[in-house]
Amino acid sequence: MNQVAIRSLIGRFKLLPTLVLVAAVSLSANARTGQSGTRVEPTDALTYSQSVLHDFTASPDGMNPQSGLVADSSGNLYGTAYYGGSGPCSGGCGTVFELSPDGNGGWTYNNIYSLPGGTVGAWPNSLTIDSQGNLYGTTAASSVFELCQEPNGGAWILCNVYGFTGGSDGQNPQGPVILDAAGNVYVVTERDDGGNGYGTVDELVLEQGVNGGGPYWSEQTLYTFTGGNDGAYPSGPLIRDKKGDFYGTTNSGGIANNGTVFKLHYTAKKGWALHTVHTFQGAPNDGLQPFGGLVLDVAGNIYGTAAYGTWPNLVGGIYKLTPSGLTAWIYVPGDAFGNIGGGLVFDKAGNLYAVGAGGVVNQYCGSFGCGAIYELTPPSGGQSTAWTANVLFGFDAGADGSNPVGLLRVDNAGNVYGVASNGGAKYGQAGAGVVFELEPNPVTTATAIVKGSPSPSKTGQIVTVGFTVAQTVKGFTQPTGTVTVNASTGEACFVALPLSGKASCQLAFESAGIRTLTATYSGDSANQGSVSGAVTQATFNSTSIKITSHIPDPAKVGKAVTVEFSVIAKDETKQTKPTGTVTVNASTGESCTGILSGGDKGKCQLTFGSSGIRTLTATYAGDADNEGSVSKAIEQAVE
Length: 639
Hints:
CATH class of the domain at 445-540: Mainly Beta
Helix content: under 10%
Strand content: over 45%
Number of strands: 47
Radius of gyration: 38 Å
Distance between the termini: 131 Å
CATH architecture of the domain at 445-540: Sandwich
Largest sheet: 6 strands, mixed
CATH superfamily of the domain at 445-540: Immunoglobulins
CATH topology of the domain at 445-540: Immunoglobulin-like
């Protein structure tokens, strides 16, 4: 490796701790616990559990992973280790590895390629995967390589490689690279003070070989930075929008020499032209030295990170650039969190994830912490530009690792995958690094039950009981499973919970009385079960009342008529025999009230002041267990 490349490599090693050291605020709450990998568990955010998918041992699997993970269509994960492997470099030239699900909840590690140094390069630091499953990497020794797998799950072989010369094509490619449908590769290069320029944007064009030779890459320089207002030393990978325009950052240059965000646009007349989207002005209100990659949201807004430059602590933060040119800082570290570093990635809900400083403070990591995984949640309703930052996990340099690096990967279930370049259980205090997964803990839920309908109900009548199940914290999957409604008298019904979280089931009560109803949600793999509060359901017996006698008939004016009646309940038991009062009404306005005796019978007397034919009806008032009822009308003659 030439002296220019060596100096560039040393410069890159100096940069990473600088980005961490600017985070003057560590997660002191984690430090005080003294626990391994203590998670911060705010009440308004998901909590996560960490597991180590692979613990590097330096040989032969590699050490110090540097790149984010990529996944193929089968769920296999791929990444790079900066050192290790069988290459001739001191400590190894690095590896490309695969982690495959073993079907039992674990992962199988496989070292699929050891970099050989030389023209292929050494010390891989990024990885990309295409739709066919081919892998593309960049190396600190100024190369881009492509790995292809032989048919039927065969060995991985080198398909293409390009070594940058440090001339007009630049040096030190900044991955991950971008691919197009034709197999062409786009990448930026960063040249340090030992180089002859300020960086380039390059295209590696897939050419067809001659005389039976396979395809190969030829290099075309799309843009060469001048170190002026266009910026200098691109500091992160490119991204591309739907129109085909490229975006990236430079670490210095621009009007204030603090770095830029740039856009490359192609026209048939002018070719590739650069437009400076934003020039960083530094403190007190703007950042400087953007680093890591950019990310676009669906509205075309650009998000990125800057290392320095904003009050109150000058540690930079996360910025948002809108298509209209407005700039907003959506997160500036405060007392609770350290500095966000590296690239950003969105989940399907629009939250951002990144690695950064913080974590546990101990003798292995110093006062700035062993690193942390951050989630940033956008404000609801667009009322504010400030996002909410939560720490998903704080590393402690033990078995969980330390110094997380690279882009994180977030799947549709909310699992977060990444690498920590140090720590781990198998390689002493410094550690060779780990591959980790953060899995969301099951979300707490709240189940609420609504009063049955009808309420009160009659014995034997169908009662529809509604309920809702909702997450107390927004999770990645809607609650599924079943909800069971139980009555205190033993009746139950259940139903599968729809995605709306609202449903109902039906009960019928064959006995009268007051009972309570509760709804129990079963939970699922991502959501905890929960039980509602109780609601009261009253059930009455249906009753029928009839006038059994009215004596004398006909009656004399002014003489008493004794009216007897009986009430029959549908579910009559010793405890639910009808009680209470019955009122007998005459169509001419006279009335009397009698009390039911233990035999469900009663009587009262009427006196009529005029002769004629009138009708009599008896009305049962009901009680706690029995529904009221009205008898059929009968005729009473008075002479």
